[in-house]
């Protein structure tokens, strides 16, 4: 979320690299995909290449690394070094494990920022953005949800909102469909109930509910 906001504020294009996208089972194809990413970024500049959980891709090199992984890292760093100072392509990474990142990568990341977990005002703003346009129950208690999301990151809150919204959707499907078929064929209207505060703490219908009186300890 923060990386996308940075791209929007700087009016830059945004390329989000996912390991599942660039890791190919065919030998050499992953290197071609990485080369294509850098080529595309140069054509789209100003452009931000974002690598989430950069430690999983560019971690400290070890003797046990697979040959393909080592070649991919080398290719990535070579292409990165090929970016000119006059160009407008920025490589941005995010990690929860900075000590696991390869030292050669860290040298290429001269600026490092610690991003703290959002405080109550920031959590409220995130929730307001995530719930904007959602049909809320008249008794929905935003203050309570803000309080109970203490210790969560922006991504955690986004996921909590998604799971909470799925609670009413699952209820609707259970009540209106049997074996994939609508119970009442004459009623084609989709009427999902509004989002309730309790949906954030529904331990049966939600995949990852928020625990009541939580919250995650911050070390």
TrEMBL record:
Limits of the ATPase AAA-type core domain: 1-117
GO biological process per UniProt: extraction of mislocalized protein from mitochondrial outer membrane; protein hexamerization; protein targeting to ER; protein targeting to mitochondrion
Alphabetized UniProt keyword annotations: ATP-binding, Mitochondrion, Nucleotide-binding
GO cellular component: mitochondrial outer membrane; peroxisomal membrane
Keyword Transcription regulation (UniProt): no
Molecular-function GO terms, alphabetical: ATP binding; ATP hydrolysis activity; membrane protein dislocase activity
Main location per the UniProt record: mitochondrion
Compartment(s): Mitochondrion membrane
Membrane topology, record value: Single-pass membrane protein
InterPro entries associated with the record: AAA_lid_3, ATPase_AAA_core, ATPase_AAA_CS, Mito_OM_Translocase_MSP1, P-loop_NTPase
SUPFAM superfamilies: P-loop containing nucleoside triphosphate hydrolases
PANTHER family per the UniProt record, alphabetical: AAA ATPASE, PUTATIVE (AFU_ORTHOLOGUE AFUA_2G12920)-RELATED-RELATED, FI08533P-RELATED
Name of protein: Msp1p
Gene: MSP1
